[in-house]
Write a structure and sequence with these properties.
Elements lengths: L12 E8 L5 E5 L5 E2 L5 H14 L32 H11 L2 H11 L1 H10 L6 E2 L16 E3 L1 H12 L6 H11 L28 E9 L2 E9 L4 E9 L8 H20 L9
Antiparallel strand pairs: 1-2, 1-8, 3-5, 4-5, 6-7, 7-8
Helix pairs in contact: 1-2, 1-3, 1-4, 1-6, 2-3, 2-6
Length: 278
């Protein structure tokens, strides 16, 4: 069974792939190997490295994380607004999973080392997907071209493997999924799943269980995830970029993402899209 893709605004660069999380069979794809800038999506690789180091004892979950002055950044997240910014490793990672916290991200990258975090994607067998740089308040031509990049083929595979417990180990995969379970951004594909944005660690509406990560910039929207329902489980990645366009395409892009999400919801729940159960 395939999942329908709506008409896509061709002014944007798209990369889409949805797979059955059990068999790996492709259910839908569109330019799955197109490399897109993926904003905050690469933070998943950081969470993998943090989870691995906690698991093998190189880091303690309760140790405090210092924030180097050269990597102070604002925008996405909550930590930059907090009075006490010396969080534990676990809580900093939780902020990354919950609100894609930029300041916590930079502190954790610094703790591990940027080269070490970049190497995670390569170790996992990905060649066109990675966390590439710290988060910056301003990105100049002297800096790496993007904080992260990726393809839908590799990102959907990453989420499938996380859901299967195959990333590093079952314990590491599970810890990453626990952090991602706190994600409060359900503005893209996940909007169609109708889950409580602030509380969906357990299966709720129509029996769906979601683990996902999103990324946003002024020219990009990306949603990657693992969604389990009573009828099926899928892993998905949908990315759209419009960097060189004069117009802001977020409205048609998000409309298309929500439509794709409706198709995913129908597939994993086994309910017809017109069943009147919204």
């Amino acid at each position: 069974m395939s999942i329908p893709v709506p008409a896509l605004d061709q002014r944007a660069r798209w990369s889409i792939r949805i797979v059955d999380a059990v068999t790996g069979e492709a259910l839908t794809e569109h330019e799955p190997d197109a490399v897109c800038e993926t904003a905050s999506i690469g933070k998943v690789f950081l969470l993998i490295e943090i989870a691995r180091r906690v698991d093998d004892g190189r880091l303690r979950a309760d140790q405090r994380v210092d924030i180097p002055a050269e990597h102070v950044v604002a925008d996405s997240g909550l930590l930059y607004r907090m009075l006490d910014q010396r969080l534990t490793v676990h809580d900093a990672a939780l902020l990354v999973g919950a609100v894609s916290d930029n300041l916590a991200t930079n502190a954790l990258i610094s703790l591990c080392g940027l080269d070490e975090v970049r190497a995670v994607a390569v170790e996992l067998g990905y060649h066109d997907t990675s966390l590439h740089d710290y988060i910056r308040n301003e990105r100049t031509s002297e800096m790496p071209w993007t904080p992260s990049f990726g393809t839908a083929r590799e990102l959907s595979d990453l989420m499938r493997r996380l859901g299967a417990g195959e990333i590093i180990s079952a314990a590491v995969s599970e810890q990453v999924l626990v952090w991602l379970a706190a994600n409060t951004d359900t503005s893209m594909l996940a909007d169609a799943f109708l889950l409580d944005p602030l509380a969906h660690p357990d299966a709720e509406y129509q029996g769906m269980l979601l683990r996902h990560k999103t990324g946003s910039t002024s020219f990009a929207r990306i949603d990657i995830g693992w969604l389990q329902g009573p009828a099926a489980t899928v892993a998905y990645a949908v990315a759209a970029n419009w960097k060189d366009r004069r117009e802001d395409l977020r409205a048609p892009v998000i409309d298309a993402m929500r439509a794709i999400g409706e198709g995913i919801r129908a597939h994993v729940t086994g309910r017809a899209r017109d069943a009147g159960d919204r």
